[in-house]
């Protein structure tokens, strides 16, 4: 029998520090390792964004920022944020911590593989960072790494940087695959008794769907990375067209750069949902808990998650309208892009309706969750603009895309990362965070990000191109655009620096925070019902929990308290029954 | 599919069979976790090879594509992989009937044939390079090396698992390595299937 689903027995963990906290096979430790590494590398990417903003807002003020350095910042910032921070944090961090606990398992089904997954992830990060120490520095090809430019001389980092980037991505994908196989098998096979699929919290539904997307989509990145590596190192011509470079014809030629784009975006668009879906799930559970109300339309939410996952595989070419494509293909991808907005909109409506008439507790996790709805809505609406071919083409190379992309793919998920860290911090550490600092952190981040990205929409409409190193001397860029860039840069640096509030809060609360107790939020899901907080090795003491109900029994009429944990028997959670046919929670807000 | 739709139509917030208070056995497959994990891995590997095939088909329409004369030794390597797959299946059957010694013999045959398959692929590489087709000569030869290398790496990974299983079969209690043998067998069938697809593709370049 797998350790993950052992019913009873003694589950003392390893005693030695190195086995307990370094070479650990405990999913909770691995989750924290993932989280801390992702935050560390994310801080580097944040600093890179400050350097970019200094160049855009105050060109020439930092002498060491030349065009090569600028493009290296752009590339590393984008890749780190999307892959090494958000993907790793949501799936490696929250996935690892929450899947076994929410499923009532003792651990992942393959703990050794899980440990390897983290160490491969760390290795991928180290390979990526090594590119700062090789001749030519990291690649400056842009985060999409489009050939031929990414491997042609003249682009920063073509000597070693691009090789290390591709190697790092390949190792990351191996790490993700090891983790992903664990998540899938654990959810399919190791849920505790009573936890049927439709009783799973939406967090699990969304993480597992995102994992499936990752397992099927990351191979596309792997294939493109390996083939590009061949082109760069072995001189093949998978993607390299005929090129005359500095007056000389290159030996390579005949390849298709557009083939790379198809492969990249076949991964790249599901990647948006690999990040977004876990955010959807986490925020659903946080909203329901802090509104003291069952999630509105649970079944619809599950269907929407699955629909988004499926449709996300047939929208990729909307990233390539400007690459040139058959007119009817453009129609097809524009249509699928608009169709995917339907299940996404269902989710936004259902979050809003979950809040409707709820007993809303405006604490830090709730504030960040509401912040997520707001920023995701704005980012989603601008996505409708860009999904249409005719509108996308003039806007594609402008700051409108930067604004859209950051609202929907950066700020919205980061809001959820913060919401989820604050929400589960008491379970992870056993202590409460400082609420005042948390609320200040929210307002600084929420208002600050709007001040940064809202004006970028205007800059985009005005025609300010993205990817430029310097914007002086262009008549079509107005003086007000320069002033706005200065403003954005100042706010970006300020908001970035003030994230220190979060770090201080997390670190100080480890020592000085109030003891949290097992279930400070009076939540229903299983991770809050562990016998110890933080949960000990094996999670559940002598016996695994048994689940009797779904995850959203909040404010049930007739119940003594406003929540009934999933492992409480009886319709009212205390052994009492309401009656065979009267669904006690099928009143207002329950799905039909 | 019907079961899936039925599951997704459940109303967990209601009383009754799919609602409150009825604990149920919940594992989706009546299989060992290792077998479920391996099947999930097949989905990932299938996605990987399928994307390589798509890239191959899309690249071969360009004018610089010069078909490669596939080395004849590939037929031998294909035969070896078939024998390996059959031998491992036989080993698995013997394991289930508790004929441990016969199972071990068949398992050895399977592993040795797989190893010979890898050697044949290296011979094919050598023949191809001697014929003047290097990795960068033209996209068809590039794909030949790339596809056989990726498939070969998967085979070598399988050989590592085979070696570990063989050691367990010799040292463990009878039947203790049964799941491992089943996994090796399944993996071998999968790689044979993938190779059949790749070989067909290479022959029709």
Entry keywords:
heterodimer; A: 592 residues; mainly alpha; Cytochrome C Oxidase, Chain A; 16 helices; 1% strand; B: mainly alpha; Four Helix Bundle (Hemerythrin (Met), subunit A); 72% helix; flat; transmembrane helix (chain A)
Tell me what you see in this structure.
The complex is a heterodimer of chains A (592) and B (205). Chain A has 16 helices and two strands. With 592 residues, chain A is mainly α. Chain A has a single domain, classed as Cytochrome C Oxidase, Chain A. Chain A has a two-stranded antiparallel ribbon with strand order 1-2. Chain B is mainly alpha-helical. Chain B has one domain (33-203): Cytochrome c oxidase, subunit III, four-helix bundle (Four Helix Bundle (Hemerythrin (Met), subunit A)), CATH 1.20.120.80. Chain B has helices at residues 2-8, 33-59, 73-96, 100-130, 139-171, 178-203. In chain B, helix 2 (33-59) packs parallel to helix 6 (178-203), helix 3 (73-96) runs antiparallel to helix 6 (178-203) and helix 5 runs antiparallel to helix 6. Chains A and B meet through helix 5, helix 6, helix 7 and helix 8 of A and helix 2 and helix 5 of B.
Provide the CATH superfamily of chain A. Cytochrome c oxidase-like, subunit I domain
Count the helices of chain B. How many? 6
Q: What is the fold named in CATH at topology level of chain A?
A: Cytochrome C Oxidase, Chain A
Strand content of chain B: under 5%
In the CATH scheme, the class of chain B would be: Mainly Alpha
Sheet with most strands: strand arrangement of chain A: 1-2
Q: Would you count the extended β strands of chain B for me?
A: 0
- Average the pLDDT over all residues of chain B and give the rounded result: 91
Largest beta sheet of chain B, briefly? none
> What is the percent of helical residues of chain A?
55-70%
CATH topology of chain B: Four Helix Bundle (Hemerythrin (Met), subunit A)
Strand and helix order of chain B: HHHHHH
CATH class group of chain A: Mainly Alpha
How many domains of chain A? The number is: 1
- Report the span from N to C terminus of chain A: 39 Å
How many strand segments of chain A?
2
* Major sheet of chain A: 2 strands, antiparallel
Give the oligomer, counting copies of the same chain as homo and different chains as hetero.
heterodimer
């Amino acid at each position: 029998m797998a350790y993950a689903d052992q019913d009873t027995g003694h589950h003392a963990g390893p005693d030695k520090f190195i086995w307990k906290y370094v070479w650990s096979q405990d999913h909770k430790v691995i989750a924290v390792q993932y989280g801390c590494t992702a935050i560390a590398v994310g801080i580097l990417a944040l600093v890179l964004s400050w350097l970019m903003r200094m160049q855009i807002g105050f060109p020439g003020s930092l002498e060491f920022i030349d065009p090569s350095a600028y493009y290296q910042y752009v590339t590393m910032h984008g890749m780190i944020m999307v892959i090494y921070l958000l993907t790793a944090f949501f799936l490696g961090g929250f996935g690892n911590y929450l899947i076994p606990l929410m499923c009532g398992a003792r651990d992942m089904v393959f703990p050794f593989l899980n440990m390897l997954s983290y160490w491969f992830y760390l290795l991928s990060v180290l390979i990526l960072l090594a590119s700062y120490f090789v001749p030519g520095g990291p690649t400056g090809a842009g985060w999409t790494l489009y050939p031929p430019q990414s491997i042609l001389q003249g682009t920063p980092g073509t000597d070693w940087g691009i090789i290390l980037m591709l190697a790092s991505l390949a190792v990351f994908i191996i790490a993700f695959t090891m983790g992903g196989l664990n998540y899938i098998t654990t959810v399919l096979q190791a849920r505790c008794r009573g936890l049927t699929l439709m009783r799973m919290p939406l967090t699990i539904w969304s993480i597992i769907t995102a994992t499936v997307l990752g397992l099927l989509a990351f191979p596309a990145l792997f294939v493109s990375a390996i083939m590009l590596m061949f082109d760069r190192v072995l001189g093949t011509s998978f993607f390299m067209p005929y090129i005359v470079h500095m007056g000389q014809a290159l030996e390579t030629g005949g390849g298709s750069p557009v083939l790379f784009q198809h492969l990249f975006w076949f991964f790249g668009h599901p990647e948006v949902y690999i990040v977004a879906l876990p955010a959807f799930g986490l925020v659903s559970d946080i909203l329901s808990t802090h509104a003291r109300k069952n999630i509105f339309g649970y079944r619809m939410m599950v269907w929407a998650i699955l629909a988004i996952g499926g449709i996300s595989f047939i929208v990729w070419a909307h990233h390539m309208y400007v690459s040139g494509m058959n007119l009817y293909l453009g129609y097809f991808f524009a249509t699928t892009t608009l169709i995917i907005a339907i299940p996404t909109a269902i989710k936004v409506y259902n979050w809003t309706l979950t809040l409707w008439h709820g007993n809303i507790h405006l604490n830090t996790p709730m504030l960040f969750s509401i912040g997520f709805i707001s920023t995701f809505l704005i980012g989603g609406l601008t996505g409708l603009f860009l999904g249409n071919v005719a509108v996308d083409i003039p806007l594609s190379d402008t700051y409108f895309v930067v604004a859209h992309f950051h609202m929907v793919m950066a700020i919205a998920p980061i809001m959820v990362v913060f919401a989820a860290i604050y929400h589960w911090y008491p379970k992870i550490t056993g202590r409460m965070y400082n609420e005042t600092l948390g609320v200040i952190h929210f307002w600084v981040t929420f208002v600050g990000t709007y001040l940064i990205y809202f004006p970028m929409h205007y800059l985009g409409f005005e025609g300010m191109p993205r990817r430029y190193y310097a914007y002086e001397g262009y008549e079509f860029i107005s003086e007000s655009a320069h002033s706005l860039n200065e403003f954005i840069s100042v706010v970006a640096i300020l908001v970035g620096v003030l994230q220190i509030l979060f770090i201080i809060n997390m670190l100080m609360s480890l020592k000085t925070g109030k003891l949290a107790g097992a279930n400070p939020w009076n939540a229903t899901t299983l991770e809050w019902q562990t016998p110890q907080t933080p949960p000990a090795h094996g999670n559940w003491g002598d016996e695994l929990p048994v689940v009797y109900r779904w995850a959203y029994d909040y404010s049930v009429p007739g119940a003594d308290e406003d929540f009934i944990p999933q492992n409480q028997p009886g319709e009212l959670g205390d052994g009492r029954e309401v009656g065979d046919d009267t669904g006690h929670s099928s009143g207002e807000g329950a799905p039909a | 599919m019907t079961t899936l739709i039925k599951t997704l139509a459940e109303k967990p917030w209601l009383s009754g069979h799919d609602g409150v208070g009825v604990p149920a056995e919940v594992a989706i497959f009546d299989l060992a976790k290792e077998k479920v994990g391996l099947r999930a891995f097949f989905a990932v590997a299938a996605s990987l090879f399928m994307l390589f095939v798509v890239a191959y088909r899309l690249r071969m329409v360009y004018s610089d594509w010069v078909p490669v004369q596939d080395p004849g030794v590939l037929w031998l390597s294909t035969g070896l992989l078939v024998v390996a797959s059959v031998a491992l299946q036989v080993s698995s059957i013997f394991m289930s009937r508790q004929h441990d010694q016969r199972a071990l013999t068949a398992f050895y045959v399977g592993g040795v044939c797989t190893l010979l398959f890898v050697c044949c692929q290296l011979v094919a590489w050598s023949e191809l390079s001697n014929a003047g087709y290097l990795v960068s000569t033209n996209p068809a030869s590039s794909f030949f090396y790339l596809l056989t290398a990726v498939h070969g790496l998967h085979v070598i990974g399988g050989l590592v698992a085979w070696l570990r299983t063989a050691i367990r079969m010799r040292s463990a209690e009878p039947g203790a390595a049964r799941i491992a043998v089943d996994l090796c067998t399944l993996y071998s069938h999968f790689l044979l299937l993938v190779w059949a697809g790749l070989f067909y593709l290479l022959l029709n370049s």
